[in-house]
Specification:
Number of strands: 11
Number of domains: 1
Helix content: under 10%
Strand order of the largest sheet: 3-4-5-10
Distance between the termini: 6 Å
Strand content: 35-45%
Bound molecules: FE2/S2 (inorganic) cluster
CATH architecture: 3-layer Sandwich
Oligomer: single chain
Structural class: mainly beta
Order of helices and strands: EEEEEEEEEEE
Length: 122
């Protein structure tokens, strides 16, 4: 039995006919993930990050930080229940919400765009 992590496409305003079918896509095998893992995967016409928190919660998100656009999949890391941007160390919960910054309160509305994700067995 093989386990895979799957995500669905983001729906975007104005995408009446998206270039890819709305569906589930396998992006990783379960053995590639574990608490503290951050993976970068090709996804449709771009990339996503897939990460797992210390407690095992899984999340998939667009890789670019809403602060200044750093690619979180390039040297980003998981700290407890958040993924950390490597540029200025903003921290994002699995929901995508920015939960803290090194200098204080997170900017209002700062969030990673997340995708629905699930682990399935095939
Ligand atoms: S670019 Fe990510 S915290 Fe600044």
């Amino acid at each position: 039995m093989t386990s895979t992590t799957e995500v669905t496409n983001l729906s975007r305003a104005g995408d009446a006919f998206p270039p890819y079918p709305y569906s589930w896509y396998a992006v990783a095998f379960a053995h590639e993930l574990g608490p503290g893992t951050v993976l970068t995967r090709r996804f449709l016409d771009g990339e996503i990050i897939v990460f797992q928190t210390a407690s095992g919660e899984l999340s998939a998100a667009e890789p670019y930080c809403p602060h200044l656009g750093a690619h979180i999949g390039k040297r980003g890391w998981v700290d407890g229940e958040a993924v950390v941007c490597p540029f200025h160390e903003f921290r994002f919960a699995p929901s995508g919400t920015c939960v803290s910054t090194p200098t204080g309160e997170p900017p209002r509305g700062a969030a990673l765009k997340t995708l629905r994700s699930a682990t399935t067995w095939a």
